[in-house]
Design a protein that fits this description.
By secondary structure, the protein is an alpha/beta fold. Helix content is 46%, strand content 13%. The chain folds into 2 domains: 261 residues, TIM Barrel; 95 residues, no CATH class. It is built from 14 helices and 10 strands. The radius of gyration is 26 Å and the shape is elongated.
Length: 376
């Protein structure tokens, strides 16, 4: 089973409220994604204007190893704006749920099918490969989705993007819907999951297992509202849960994460899986003791896979063995009484300052403890 990542950080990620990448940032992110082995990326929206099209052309001119996609509505003006941008494929998006067809477009299902036929054929005449983006596909009638996919394929589209636009699905319903669509069509199916219920990664994995060929992701889970499925979570989930490789060098994740965080102005939460600063840090005494005995006791996967390493920190929940280990790395061998006394100081420090002690604090604690024990 294969899974092709089509990262949409430079399009849907940039649609995060308040986020706007400049040209240099978009080019740097595109290079980083390509260098990591991301197979495809969606790099912009040509209809936004001449500056956006120039950035898209600049990225296309880099000769990156990744396939390049641009995004537009299923509309004549959007399609024309995509011509000459240098992208390999265009995603033409159109609502496919009855609520959006009626209340957003003011149209009906027949109009949607006619639009798909017309604009996909036009795009093919322009020499472009086409993905039909099914906006709000998760709320669409399944029989109508079959019609949409059949119409898109007949018109010459190579891919259908199944968009859970409002993040309403769970992994079980995602699997069933994608499986049913896959059994009736050989068109490429791309899952586009939003994280409104915190299920974007789970839904993306379920879609791949059900037969989706492509998965949309964003670095750090950027995206509208609650964001999209994070690149780092999807890739590592596929690898460790299902043995599915994407060809991406996961050791690049910390660098790419920091790059996107800086460009977007959206810091990565410390406990963000895979790339958060604290996700390989251990404080609790029972965990640290287990790690010191055998790292496999509390290691689901080797952090070196994602360019990280375990870090033992001292705080309120530390034990004496962690204290001895930390001081041992400083070249100080503690006795049991010294370790117990220092541990009291470490816990008091953590409660008072809400952070782990610095090396200067540890040196001070040692001197104070040594003096007290010598005097006592």
């Amino acid at each position: 089973m294969n899974a092709i990542i089509n990262d949409v950080t430079l399009r849907d990620g940039e649609q995060t409220a308040g986020v706007a990448f400049n040209a240099e940032e978009k080019i740097a992110i595109a290079r980083a994604l390509a260098d990591s082995g991301v197979a495809e990326m969606e790099i912009g929206i040509p209809i936004l204007g001449a500056e956006e099209r120039e950035i898209i052309r600049s990225i296309a001119g880099l000769g990156l190893s990744s396939g390049l996609m641009v995004w537009g509505r299923m509309h004549q003006d959007d399609l024309v704006s995509c011509v000459g941008c240098g992208a390999d494929i265009v995603n033409l998006s159109i609502p496919v749920s009855d609520i959006q067809i009626s209340h957003k477009l003011g149209r009906d299902r027949k109009w949607v099918l006619r639009s798909i036929t017309r604009h996909v054929r036009e795009a093919r005449e322009y020499g472009m490969e086409v993905s039909v983006g099914g906006e709000d596909a998760s709320r669409a009638d399944l029989d109508f989705l079959r019609e949409v996919i059949g119409t898109a394929q007949m018109a010459g589209a190579r891919r259908f993007r199944f968009a859970d636009t409002l993040g309403l699905l769970d992994p079980f319903s995602t699997f069933e819907r994608i499986r049913k669509l896959r059994t009736e069509s050989d068109i490429e199916i791309e899952i586009h999951a939003h994280d409104d219920l915190g299920l974007a990664t789970a839904n993306t994995l379920a879609a791949i297992l059900a037969g989706a060929t492509h998965a949309n992701t964003t670095v750090n889970g950027l995206g509208e509202r609650a964001g999209n499925a994070p690149l780092e979570e999807v890739v590592m989930g596929l690898r460790h849960l299902y043995g599915i490789e994407t060809g991406i060098d996961c050791r690049s994740f910390p660098e790419i994460s920091l790059l996107v965080a800086a460009a977007s102005g959206r810091p990565v939460p410390a406990n963000k899986s895979i790339v958060g600063d604290s996700v390989f840090s251990h404080e609790a005494g029972i965990h640290v003791d287990g790690l010191l005995k055998n790292i496999a006791n509390y290691q689901g996967f080797d952090p070196a896979e994602v360019g990280r390493e375990h870090r033992l920190v001292l705080g309120k929940h530390s034990g004496s063995k962690a204290v001895m280990d930390a001081y041992g790395k400083m070249g100080i061998v503690l006795t049991d009484p010294e370790a117990r006394s220092i541990l009291v100081r470490i816990r008091d420090h953590a409660v008072a300052n809400k952070k782990t002690p610095a090396s200067s604090d540890l040196e001070r604690f040692y001197l104070e403890t040594s003096s007290c024990l010598a005097a006592g």
